[in-house]
Amino acid sequence: MCFIIQIMKVAVFNTHKFEKEYLVDANDNKHELKLLDSYLNIDTTILAKGCEAICIFTQDNGSAPVLDKLHEIGVKHIALRSAGYNNVDIPYAKSLGIRIVRVPDYSPNSIAEFTVAIILALNRKLIRSHYRIMEMNYSLDGLVGFDMNGKTVGIVGTGKIGRIAAKILHGFGCHILAYDTVIDQTLVEECKATYTDLDSLCNQSDIISLHVPLKEQTHYLVNEAQIAKMKKGVMLINTGRGGLVNTQDVINGLKSQQIGYYGMDVYEEEEGLFFEDHSEDILQDDMIARLMTLRNVMITSHQAFLTDTALKNIAETTIENLDCLEKGLPCKNEVL
């Protein structure tokens, strides 16, 4: 008797060079992966024709009009290569019968460690110092930082990433203030963290780091009113989601020196900008162009997750999720 093995075809949108090897290795020929450079949007849905599933990243467009197009061409599953899913209209996808899976936990250490790296780089002005040395300028003027020991750090969101960031910063001798809907007793006991309301955290913290998911309630969590409640000269770090911060309000805060330092690994208008080489283009985004002129701002291109451990875990979990979808089995990582 001859059995025909059906291999699920998957259109992998927004595939980058840094992740291809990990995806191919993890897949091990289980599924037919159609690796695409294109972002998912209303015009590129046709690239998924003939595929039962698509695989997308944080900058891909999963809005209702796009989902309609995908449904029309027979796409039944969406596998996210990320923990967040704010770029997909989940209720509408479900109404179309499209199952959605994600990667909830790939390496919280990678993002927490990168967060602390940005804090240290901004504080000790490492980037400016490096470029001075490259120009044979060995002066130390303008490079004065501060001791981390004894500083108060506000952690907004004490989930997996925020918890690890708090523990690292506690190791520096920082006092930890925390804001979350759920109190982590481990942080309270091990790091002497004090849970408080957002206004008090802003008022007392020398450094504020954002680690909450982007939801309707957290959109523009940092805005003009909240910035006014912060300590003069505060250091603000966002390695969470771009939409947590009203960028124009932050620029105004930097200009008035209410915000003394700003580290951003994510940006509310990063779609089509981050992950791409625009070195030959004229920059069209006025907000990020303004931020790039400020010496007390550090910008990275959604890089915090980028470790070999994280990429391996993302690829392996994505393929495991696709295995479940192909077999019609329940999936622990399904967005319900």
Description:
The chain is of the alpha/beta class. The protein folds into two domains: 9-106 and 308-327, Rossmann fold, CATH 3.40.50; 108-299, NAD(P)-binding Rossmann-like Domain (Rossmann fold), CATH 3.40.50.720. Helix content is 35%, strand content 15%. It contains twelve helices and twelve strands. It has helices at residues 17-27, 64-72, 90-95, 108-123, 126-134, 160-171, 185-191, 198-204, 224-228, 247-255, 286-291, 308-327; strands at 9-12, 32-35, 53-56, 77-80, 99-101, 152-156, 175-179, 194-195, 207-210, 234-238, 259-264, 297-299. Strands 8-7-6-9-10-11-12 form a seven-stranded parallel beta sheet, with helices on both faces. A five-stranded parallel beta sheet has the order 2-1-3-4-5. The radius of gyration is 22 Å and the shape is globular. It starts with 8 loop residues before the first strand and ends in a 9-residue tail after the last helix. The model has no long low-confidence stretch (mean pLDDT 96).
